[in-house]
Write a structure and sequence with these properties.
Signal peptide: 1-26
Protein name: Dirigent protein
Organism: Vitis vinifera
Largest sheet: 8 strands, antiparallel, barrel
Structural class: mainly beta
CATH superfamily of the largest domain: Allene oxide cyclase-like
Subunit structure: Homodimer.
Bound molecules: 2-acetamido-2-deoxy-beta-D-glucopyranose
Distance between the termini: 15 Å
Shape: globular
Radius of gyration: 20 Å
CATH architecture of the largest domain: Beta Barrel
Keywords: Apoplast, Secreted, Signal
């Protein structure tokens, strides 16, 4: 555990090195089971579209049922099959049709809860949505807030499908388990990501719309330097490599899919996998650490992002990133 009086990131980072052997002594973990059922409204056409194809194969229709179509989503999640029933959250992220015969969608998304019970918490979803099967399963790889370190699965069932116009309602039955956080050994450290994503430019977005950080469906690929302190000339720690997708229809949230690739110090060559929904205009936002490699193999946890400095015109920002993980 890191004393809160420590303020320099260098010291905190050093403590991570010291803390690793402690992690190996983790006690047996208790599991808490949670089950949630909801309906996902995936609407590509008609009123209030929530899923928009941004890319696909040349000379082929960009549609949910066609191989290689890439679709960012901000789908409503409701209590009942009725699209206007109480909303419990949003499914925000992206899916890609990943079967040559068009029968499968690769999901990379966050279930972001907004209902009273789970408000502000999220689940990270990854998996193969073989949508012609009556039932299929995707994975819950992690979570945030109340659902930190969650793992589980979701059974999906299509309860409404109009493939010609690409609209569907999917019933989700999610079962996940959580490690008791009080039994976890964990460590915190601080790094800084200089997100130059806006300046480097988007690589993909909704055709005919402005491609920007606050436009739904815009995809950025990043390779951001990570340093120990806000000063760009401070000691390098690694790189933040991966992609960001603006995943809220109103532009208020970004789906982050990055690896922290350590290039210096003891963890050089190891990585942490970061995934989650990050509303960049909120002071603090939490994403999941879903795994790691090298000395950080089996890492699980969460990262809290805090914007330290923004230069909007050139799209340059410095983000403080406080990662809490356990490796056993
Ligand atoms: C990092 O987060 C942990 C808990 O999530 C907190 O205890 C710690 O004070 C934070 N450290 C910094 C430097 O913000
Ligand atoms: C679309 O959204 C508007 C405004 O929120 C709402 O009044 C309308 O009922 C919605 N239409 C459908 C088909 O859900
Ligand atoms: C959820 O949290 C947000 C931000 O804290 C708050 O504005 C909103 O009213 C909350 N919603 C519910 C249903 O509690
Ligand atoms: C959800 O799935 C579990 C199996 O994981 C099953 O036992 C349960 O009956 C299902 N619940 C609903 C409401 O469909
Ligand atoms: C691990 O972190 C959680 C939440 O940040 C905290 O409640 C818990 O006390 C920490 N456990 C240890 C052993 O550091």
């Amino acid at each position: 555990m890191v004393p809160t009086s420590l303020t320099t990131s260098a010291t905190i980072f050093f403590l991570l090195l010291l803390a690793i052997p402690i992690c190996l002594e983790a006690k047996p973990l208790k599991l808490k089971q949670t089950q949630v059922v909801f309906y996902m409204h995936d609407w590509e056409t008609g009123a209030n579209v929530t899923a928009i194809p941004i890319a696909g194969l040349p000379k082929k229709p960009w549609a949910v049922g066609t191989f290689a179509t890439i679709i960012p989503i901000d789908d409503a999640l409701t209590e009942t099959i009725d699209r206007n029933s109480a909303q419990i959250g949003r499914a925000q992220g992206i899916y890609v049709n990943s079967a040559l015969d068009g029968s499968d969608l690769h999901f990379l998304m966050s279930v972001v809860f907004t209902n009273k019970q789970y408000n502000g918490s999220s689940l990270e979803i990854q998996g193969a949505d073989r949508f012609f099967n009556k039932y299929r399963e995707v994975s819950v790889v992690s979570g945030t807030g109340m659902f930190r370190l969650a793992r589980g699965y979701a059974i999906l069932e299509t309860v409404y499908l109009d493939l010609p116009v690409s609209n569907a309602i999917i019933r989700w039955n999610v079962t996940f388990f959580q490690f008791s956080t009080t039994l976890n050994h964990n460590v915190s450290y601080t790094i800084l990501i200089r997100c130059a994503c806006s300046r480097n430019g988007a690589v993909l977005s909704v055709p005919g719309k402005i491609w920007s950080f606050t436009s739904f469906g815009t995809v950025f690929v990043t390779d951001d330097p990570i340093t120990e302190a806000p000063d760009p000339n401070s000691a390098p720690v690694g790189r933040g490599r991966g992609m960001y997708i603006t995943s809220a229809l109103d532009g208020s949230t970004t789906h982050v899919l990055i690896s922290i690739v350590f290039t210096n110090g003891q963890f050089s060559g190891s990585t942490l996998e970061i995934q989650g929904s990050s509303p960049p205009f909120q002071k603090y936002r939490e994403v999941s650490v879903v795994s790691g490699t090298g000395p950080l193999r089996f890492a699980r946890g969460y990262a809290i992002f805090e914007t330290g400095f923004v230069d909007t015109p050139i799209g340059y920002s410095v983000i403080k990133c406080n990662v809490t993980i356990r490796t056993a």
